[in-house]
Every structure is written in structure tokens, then in C-alpha cells.
Design a protein that fits this description.
Elements (H helix, E strand, L loop, with lengths): L1 H11 L10 H16 L4 H26 L6 H11 L2 H5 L7 E3 L2 E3 L11
Antiparallel strand pairs: 1-2
Length: 118
């Protein structure tokens, strides 16, 4: 019993070489988003999956940039933030376009727009 427990602790102490963001998992998460929506899964759950998918896309982008040797200040933060902010395009598509004249410019007050169908 003691030897088995000692062997278990010995095996746990090794560094894991598995990649938690494998390419197959990334594709599976991306494919399951639309399937989950069509099956009636709550949008909150689909939103968590979408955020995880976009974060994985940022992770893979950083790995690709490492291979190319592209390093610059704030690279990780910029890439991961921009990959998660891509979800804003979904919400922007639901906003009505209603430009208003402000002085000499025609501007769309998207911050004050209402969501269609709400």
C-alpha cells in the first residue's frame, strides 16, 4: 500500500506535457456553438463557450506569432483582448443605423441606440 502511494506521488510530481488548448478541442468548441444554439441551449451558456473559443483563438495567434518571432510590448494583452472583443461584432449587427447631425458631421450615436426587437 505504501509503495503504491509513493508511486502515485512520484507520478504526480512530473510536469505535464499535455496542451490544454489542443487544436481538436478548439475546433470542437467552435463547431458546437451553433449546434448548441439550435438545440435551445441558453444564451448565457453559449456566451461562455463563445468567450472560451475566442480566447483560444487568441492563444493560437500568440503561438503562431512566437513561431514567426514577432515580439513587441504588450503583445499578449493586445492579442487576447482583441480576440475576446471580436464578439462585439455580433452585438453591433443588432443595432439600428440611425445617424444624426451633430454640428457639421453625421454621426451614429451607437452608445445610445436600442437593440432591435427589444
Amino acid at each position: 500500500m505504501f509503495v503504491a502511494l509513493l508511486l502515485l506521488f512520484y507520478l504526480i510530481s512530473f510536469q505535464a506535457y499535455a496542451n490544454p488548448a489542443c487544436a481538436v478541442c478548439t475546433v470542437a468548441v467552435g463547431a458546437s456553438l451553433e449546434i448548441a444554439r439550435r438545440m435551445g441551449v441558453d444564451d448565457a451558456v453559449v456566451g461562455v463557450w463563445a468567450g472560451a473559443f475566442l480566447m483560444l483563438l487568441g492563444y493560437w495567434t500568440l503561438k503562431w506569432m512566437d513561431k514567426k518571432g514577432w515580439h513587441f510590448y504588450g503583445r499578449d494583452f493586445i492579442i487576447l483582448t482583441s480576440s475576446v472583443l471580436m464578439i462585439l461584432f455580433i452585438y453591433i449587427s443588432h443595432l439600428p443605423y440611425s445617424p444624426k447631425a451633430i454640428l457639421i458631421f453625421w454621426l451614429d450615436p451607437f452608445l445610445f441606440a436600442t437593440i432591435c426587437g427589444a
